[in-house]
Amino acid sequence: MLRSISARLNRQTSFEANPLRDTGSGRYDADHNGGLRNACPSPAMRCGGRVAYLAERLNELGVDKPSDTAASILRQFGSIAAFTCSGESEFRRILGQDDVVKIVLATRDLIEAGLREQLDRTILAPDDPALHRYLVRRIGHLRHEVLLAFFCDEAGGFIAEETLASGVQDSVAISARVVVQKAMALDARSFLLVHNHPSGTPVPSAQDERETRAIQALAQKLELRLIDHLVVGGTQIRSVFERISRDD
Question: Which of 53, 101, 107, 224 has minimal CB crowding within 10 Å?
Fold first, then answer.
């Protein structure tokens, strides 16, 4: 259970978060690099030379055979973002060197802590660019489905983030009772649901709509408010509420 967020981290790493663009109709698009822009992108990166760019970064970390490793990463994961979102076991399998793995994991944790910290003691809004940057970085490129819940107090202030479910691709189902029980245990008054589509397509499914309606109905009976249900696919975010309003 994540009851509080770590102390403020003014990120001065090689990545700088950018706001997402509201494109209307409940859809939000991140920058072309997944909501994270390299502060000093190399010419190779701008020209699409992802292997060369990644090899440079791996060489700086002291990785053996950086060019071969970079090519292997992109071949297996498809993108740098997908690799950085993978688990420790994948890092160890690909990078091998324990000291390098520790640096990569620590850097990733610091970046995510910095993004999460922006949510602490703030009024949580489904269209908040800070929230979207965090969500894209957190689950946008995962190859399995994850369901998150963000719980808020009576004023809408962020209380806690919970991972409610995690499974293989397209396998996570939402239990209205579990969500409501978590909210009541935290003495929350409202909550935001978020899950990802590993396919990279953020369009809410018919099942997403049905489950959202069921959760909203149960929450209302208990005087809880479902703020929204967001779907993250790659660098895009869609609102299930917006989809439901168009269908009604």
Answer: 107
